[in-house]
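Input/output pair, single chain:
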Amino acid sequence: MDASIATQDARARSGTRVEIRAIHRPRPRDLRGLAELIERTARLDGHRPIGEHALVELKQGPRAFPHAAFAATEGGELVGYAHLSRRETRHGWRLEAFVAPERRGRGIGTRLVAAVLDHVAAHGGGRIHAWAYLPGPAQERLARRFGMRLVRRLFRMSRPLPAPGIEPPAGLRIRPFRPDDAEAWLALHNRVFADHPDAGGWRLRDLAWHLEEAWFDPSGFLLAEAEAGLVGYCWMKLEGELGWVYFLGVAPEVRGTGLADALCATGLGWAHRRGATRGVLYVDEGNPPAVRLYRRLGFGVEHVDLCYEASVPPAGPGGDRGLSAP
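Output:
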């Protein structure tokens, strides 16, 4: 990583020197190395170690770099990464971190999280949400060590394709996204997800970055339109044989009309016609209407990801950090 970055040295229990580095000015080769580690970890774990939003930020490079990032290196080799972002909302900080599978169990993850929490404290503190994907005992121990409590459970659900088609309610039509829909879609999206800690608060640049992704296909970004304007959408993403329901949302005034069912079914049909054999999505357990919708459409839970929360006080005069569960 960049030679100008600040460093914090540590040793793994094996005695091998491990260095935790705060990344300030990533170079293209740094980002390529990180992308390779993410993909290798995903192949070995069967699951990406960080979320889609973090991947989009990394692919955009320095112009979209997160609030803070930390790399763990051993002998010059990248062996772990922590991604810290901060939305301009009340939801505070979001942390995703992982360690290369062959280097786990040596305390590297603990040092990465400690470096992140020190950074949060030095920047005014606040609530931090840490995600554990395909969680196990190690993530649970790490959360307890840092005083974090479980606050969210995220279901990964799937169903085989094809799925039955469903017609939209009378007076509504479903059509593909057009570039001139951007502002109207953004307004609808932020209204639908106004209270959501991850999906809300989008800006035009967030939409623009996603539209630049190699996987983006406007024919799979489906909008439901009434005479007065947009009232719903289903944004699909193809990933091999998987058809992802990337976003599904309907305006509050048309909920309960069957529009969400029709949009999702139309999106799954779009994915199946392009070779997908399974529909996949994420939904928060704390959103019972959405969970019921997906179960009604034939989705079942594959696994559950967990989100932990803690309150980080601002650093004291001596730079000391306290930590407490909210």
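The longest strand covers residues 300-312. The chain has two domains: 7-152+307-312, 162-276.
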